[in-house]
User: Fold this.
Amino acid sequence: MRRLVSSHTTEFALLAVMVLLCIGLSFGTDRFLTVSNAFDVLNVSAVNIIFAVGLLVVLISGGIDISFAVAASVVQYVTVLALSALGGGNWAEGFIIAGLVGIGLGSINAFLIYRLQIISIVATISTFNIFFGLLMFFTKGVSIYNLPDWLSNRVVFYEREMADGSWVELTLPVVVMILCCIATWFMMSRTTIGRKLYAFGDNPEGARRFGINIGAMHVISFGWLGLMAGIAGLMQAHYAQEVVPNALYGRELDVLAATVLGGARLGGGKGSVLGCVLGVLLVSITQNGLNLMGVSPFAFKMIVGAIILVAITLSSARFDRLLPNAMKASARKRSQRP
Amino acid sequence: MSAEPLLSLKNIKVTFGGVRALKGVSFEVNAGEVHCLAGENGCGKSTLIKVITGVYKPEEGAEIVFDGKPVSAMTPTLAQSLGIQVIWQDLALFGEMSVAENIGFQLAVTGTYGMVDKHAIDEAAEKALARLGVRLDIHKPLKELPIAQRQIVAIARALVGEARLVFMDEPTASLTQSEADYLIEIVRNLSASGVAVVFVSHRLAEVLEISHRITILRDGSLVGVYPVEGMTQSRVTELMTGRNFDSAVIASDHDEAPVVLSVRNLTRHGEFRNVSFDLRRGETLGITGLLGAGRTELALTLFGMHRPHEGEILLEGQKVDFASNRDAIRAGVAYLSEDRLSLGLNQPQSIADNLVMASLDRILSHGLISPAKKRDVVSHWISALGVKIGTPDDPIRTLSGGNQQRVAIAKWLAISPKILILDAPTVGVDVGARAGIFEIVRKLAAEGLSIIIISDEPPEVYFNADRVIHMVEGRLEAVYDPRHTSLSELESAVYA
Amino acid sequence: MKTFIQTFNARFGADMAGPVVAFIAVMVIFGLAADNFLSMATFGSVAFQLPELGLLTLAMLLPLLTGGINLSITFAANLSGLAAAWVLQSHGGVDASAGVFALACVAALVTGGAAGALTGVAIAYTRAHPILVTLSMMIFLRGLGEFLTRGGDVSGFPDYVAPIGHGSLFGLPIPLLIFIVCVAVWHVLLTRSKLGFGLLMIGSNMEAADYSGLNTRKIVVLVYTLSGIMCAIAGIIMLARFNSVRVGHGESYLLITVLAAFLGGINPFGGFGRVLPVFVALIVLQLLSSGLNLMGANQHLATALWGVLMIVVMAARTIVSKFRIFTGKKV
Assistant:
């Protein structure tokens, strides 16, 4: 158990903060600690979590991507236009088109970074401008409101009325989000590809000398983020029941902040799906709680910002230094014992 | 040992951008042999290793034979499958991964159906460590291990790759003596179990201790292959540089000169304790001892980077308490770092900027940096110390180690220091260029500068200092006068 | 040709080549494609649009040169503008005196400087990655600004404020003059001051700079403070140009400033870069957008082309340096 704690400090610290926050909020408002509210938080966070696990893979492999959120907007638009060209389409076609377009856009980033050796932040800021500029140019900023029925109708996997009259709903975005998390977790910690991505992010030169195909690593990490961005884009269109070209503009930095809050390290080699999910949830729970407490939405954005500022600054000063000393000492002793 | 060599290379030529890095070199290693590859920086050692591991392709006419079979084109993958493993100087390990994942990395990236088998990896790691006779917690993240244990992890990783021939590039450079001894023991075990080890090291003493044979390269050519029996350090140096170095003790008395620096019972817990000594004007003081003896920590405290817990520092009789190294610099204390690549110099920046970095206040006019004054200061020091450069605007990393070190010294001379602390001033400097550095040091001392030379190589302080302090585990063990002590007495005290 | 390149590099610096080539390309292409491109009207529109983006780019520049970044510049500019607006409104609104306006400017500069200093302190003392600190600072400042304005506009300023955004002096737009003065100050700061020297040194190796006696923490704090002050100047210009302050105004400039800086030859890892090539790069970006505007395309196509231009320039650098390695010359 101690080893588990000391090797997952960020996750446990986040969990602890989250528990404290939940306790505090449940005293602050009686509507917070209900099952239906928990599902609300999940429904609201689903799209961001899908983005975040995609971004996580890129961060672990040592890159950064600014373009994924506007890429998702491009995917939404292209997918909806393609579906109407196909005469309506269905969920399977929707996912395939969104996924492929997303992977394609991600591969453009991989090409720029690997083939043209442009560092990832410069390359993705450029593609951010290209994707968004072209999208707004071709769409003239016009939104699409008449989505196919299957896409705009809510898909509910499980619903139940609670004793207090509130509804619990398990909706499609949440199910898709859970599948994306499992897939990403599986790839990163159970397959050789995952090991290679971690290794490449940890020590690129060491990985190269070991004969790891660097080009493939770029395509896989940015392709995966593209896939996740495509799926997230489709889910966001489904959730919002419309496609607005600049709806996701600016989302990239919020997701980046939440992912890093979850322990992923800029520079690579470190990060976990659990931490990443907790990072996004912490932000959502804070917003949700403040909302329920009747705090002005303008104020809670500021409060969330302050919390992220403090958390990120503190976590750079290393969470594990905040662990009780006794625990650290005994962990050290245990590992030294032959 | 079989009569047939395990690996044999003939007529290896490599050219980079018109410069011949290897001019037709031959090289042989026998199975189970510990072989040393020696030569100055830039002699072609690392190029040769990269040819053997398939990173570089040799030119037409090269011949590579491994285990009796000719190899027409070596690639990194082929080299690995033949059992040729390299332990790079930077180890190329993965800090965030556990010990087991590092050792079993080969298994982790080649699992069946692309799956990772954690049990197989743990098992392989345990087995490799057992073969080395080492116990380590295999679930610990690598970044938490000390450097010596990481070295062992790198060796264990090579064993998982069914190594038959292991190259070790400067494996002991960052180890303390006892750690290095431990590593040497492991190398012996490896060799006894039939694995050939090629050792690249500049610590000649340990090379002579463990190698069976030495191959010496100079300027991309083979000087010769020699058995270690009957070899001496000075003979190896001579073969490596093609020159003969005579050393003589230069120590002299400075009892008449005023005391510049007095250190009284200086202590930093866990680093050094109760260190006291005086340094006089024009005197050169040597400090030696093994890695971990507290030499660099002491120097950093004198330089104001750390604060002493107890004791005091007096500069020309005045007690000083430096809050940062800026205070120390203002008081005339300069410190040449042992780590020239990342601390001593700002490698990507220009020679001129590096040179004026510590003395900006002296080139100001009306509060702004004066380009004319800067140019004058730079050209003055470049010629005063005989630094060979293209233009002062070239990045300093384009200079050789010796010339870089001269610029680093010039940077500190530009503040007109009273005390100059040189920490390992010859690390990464060719044997041939070292004499030039010490010549400068001697001249500075004659001009009245007080100098402290820190080195883990006893001859370096013995032949270049007036007095030698020997530190052991943070204590000042003894003070030697080179005129009344022999070098071997000093060495046996240090290595005891 | 070779000697021309050498003379050019000796006089203007090698980092000037990319922006100048791009400048010539843009002038030639649009000069041929749109017959009314080479005119005073184009110059006028560039001259009035350049300063906002330009000042924010200057704010981004110093952190980039230290190997960091400042993602909070646009909201720092908004917040500084808000501070000025608040001072103006609480002292008479449209009837505020010139003295009040001076006070408002001071309030803006102090606000921007304080936001920057706070960022700088967080980065210098926790050694957290500047992307993270400034990103969270951005989220915080945005929230704070939206809280203070409730998402609306603040407007109603004295008439004499407008010329700062729209007026001309000696035939040159006043915002352009302010921008040129700031460029000159930044140029002197980088080439001649101790702070400029130090920030370039910490950009390529913070620890080596520390060992050489540079006060690296102080430099980092000053860099982000100056960045915040430059944001405040941008905020004042925006206030004057739009006669209102809205949180979120200029948000789309954020990543463009990074792009302009890299286009101007700033080393993405820090330590190397000059102001003048960035100035030329900014003009190129504005010309591109004005030219497209003349040809009937909108700003969004220009945004996309800015991204393409960036990739072309960065790719050309990669190819040139590979070529030089190939021919055995040192870069």
Observations:
- DSSP finds 15 helices and two strands in chain A.
- Residues 318-338 of chain A have pLDDT under 50 and may be disordered.
